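Subject: sequence -> structure tokens, single chain

Hey, anyone have a minute? Need the predicted structure for the following. Not urgent.
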Amino acid sequence: MPVWKQPDGKPVSCLEKIKVLNQNLEEIRQLCADAYEDAVLMGCDPDQIRAVFRELIESIEAPYSDRK
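Reply:
Had a minute. Here:
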């Protein structure tokens, strides 16, 4: 798992926050793996699927980006 960092580069130290972040990451990984498998089974190009996932991630904007 990654070392979760604050905007100033310091690591997140709250264990409960780290636990939630890690759980969220695992849920996202599993959902992506399931969607990827479905797309491959339906005959989609694996490289395109990965590109679409990357574009999706890059398009997400932080709703609280002005918070510090």
